[in-house]
Amino acid sequence: MKYQNPIIKGFHPDPSICRVGEDYYLVTSSMEYFPGLPLFHSGDLVNWEQIGNCIDRNGQMDLKDVCDSGGIWAPTIRYDSGKFYVTATLEPYGNFIISAENPRGRWSDPIRVQMGGIDPSLYFENGKAYYCTNLSLHPGEEEITLAEIDTATGECISPVRTIWCGTGGGHLEGPHIYFIEGWYYLLAAEGGTNFNHMETAARSRSIWGPYESCPDNPILTNRSDTVKQVQCTGHADLFQDHRGNWWMVHLGIRTARRTMSHLGRETFLAPVIWKDGWPQIRTGKKEMLEQEGPLWMAQQEKNGWRADFHRKEWEPQWIFLRERKEELFARGKGFLRLYPSVRTGDGIGQTFAAVRPLDFHCVLETALCFLPQKMGDEAGIAVYLESGFHYRFGKKRTEQGEFLVLEKTAEDFQQTACRIAVGPGKMHLRMVCDKEKYHFYYAQEAEEWHLAASASTRFLSCEVAGRCFTGTVMGLYALAQEKTNAYAEFEDFEVRK
After folding, report:
1. What residue numbers bound the domain in which 450 lies?
2. Alpha carbons 127 and 54: distance in angstroms, whole number
3. In whole angstroms, what is the distance from residue 149 CA to residue 101 CA?
4. CA-CA distance, 263 to 257, in Å (whole number)?
5. Is the pTM of this model over 0.85?
6. Which of 298, 335, 430, 440 lies 20 to 30 angstroms, CA to CA, from 238?
């Protein structure tokens, strides 16, 4: 049966998956955003529902001081003896483990693991837990290392040993261990999570090695074909479905332009076959947007999502930069109220509630009621990549009056792209996205839409921003130049194709 990749769209990198019976659970990196570690469930591998976030409460983990593209990355999810475990790296804290008996419920506070390196993975066997990272025991060497650990304390209960040094592709990371038909298989990512990214494999009769490399490495990469829309494939997790078929989930990007993407790294699914005792992608080494595999349910198209501001609880799709300050938001009466935060530097402030975009082509729409009190008070919609790279479209008070403005920030370039005089009352805002442009519309009466301005997606791409491991997010913001009594109320927030 054919299906479309990515199976989870938008900024969802470093996927890891585990199966319990006929249920599948998948977790991805979240970097500097809170809540962290988005968690998904599926019964058929191609239709996924976000059921929560593993890091979802204040005090569970502190992200306040993490840098852009820092935070929480490269999780692994596993199930053993009635309990789910997730391990990941928090930069610069180190590696940690959280656990839950019910993945839809409350996850534990983190336990710090006393083993360095990044991109940790857990493997359970015969009552023992093994921990695997890219910790280097020899200066200047790239290594995958292994130790037995106590998951209750995070302490190593065996010496840390080197088990494999990769194929020489550089940036050896993302290890996972599996035991299949008498062999321990080790999968790892190499080449860096960019256009040289790839997945390699090794195997051994003993979990401690020595591991022999797959003669057909890399087993997954799109690095040699820059015309394909899918690029940067790697960081895979191997699994068997309840019908006996083998698969990989892995990250990749879809390019909007030849070598640029503003959605960031997404989650893909690839069917796996075995040949001469080694896993291989069924369609070859390369990932494709349209795949075919032994599925048992058809993939359903997701056309949109609408927030319910009548409920007090935040839906799991909402994310915030580093922390959610509850005093800056109020909801539950049919609207979301935002209290402006004071802008510092080139950021967007703490009063920013965002979601990941559905696709290159999507529409964000909301209604804004806002009465600015002081000079510089503003509120509206925004698309954000990282500090210094974002577009804001909203109502702003200036010395000349109240205007609808599009503020574009791209590193040291700042521009007011439009300036439209507006009066009091409700303002309808819309952002229409495609591969090359964000188009910003407004209406003072519903359905009487006017194009205010457009802005290039290029300046919010990871390749322009530089060291950026996230993707764009879009949502609602409120800013001030100084402390203000103003507030903004939003109605009918919707993201759709």
Report:
1. 304-496
2. 24
3. 20
4. 12
5. yes
6. 298
Beta carbons within 8 Å of 434's beta carbon, 6+ residues apart: 360, 361, 457
The sign of the dihedral angle between the CA atoms of 219, 224, 230, 235 is positive
Query: pLDDT tens-digit profile of 83-133?
Result: 999 999 998 889 999 999 999 999 999 999 999 999 999 999 999 999 999
State the Cα–Cα distance between residues 85 and 76, nearest whole angstrom: 8
Distance (Å, whole) CA 241 – CA 297: 13
Q: Which of 142, 148, 173, 199 is catalytic?
A: 173
Among candidate residues 432, 428, 400, the one with its CA nearest the CA of residue 416? 400
Distance CA 260, CA 451 (A): 26
Domain count, the chain: 2
* 212 labelled catalytic: no
* Domain identity same for 63 and 140: yes
More confident residue, 447 or 24: 24
Q: Is 14 a catalytic residue?
A: yes
CATH of the domain at 414: 2.60.120.200
Q: What span, in angstroms and rounded, lies between the C-alpha atoms of 460 and 329?
A: 27
Contact 453, 446 (CB under 8 A): no
Please compute, for residue 207, the number of CA atoms within 13 A of its CA located in the half-sphere on the CB side: 19
Residue where one domain finishes, among candidates 272, 292, 312: 292
- What angle is formed at CA 208 by the lines to CA 206 and CA 212, rounded to 5 degrees? 70
pLDDT for residue 226: 62
Assess whether pLDDT exceeds 90 at residue 412: no
Residue 201 and residue 339 in one domain: no
Classify the C-alpha dihedral 53-57-59-60 as positive or negative.
negative
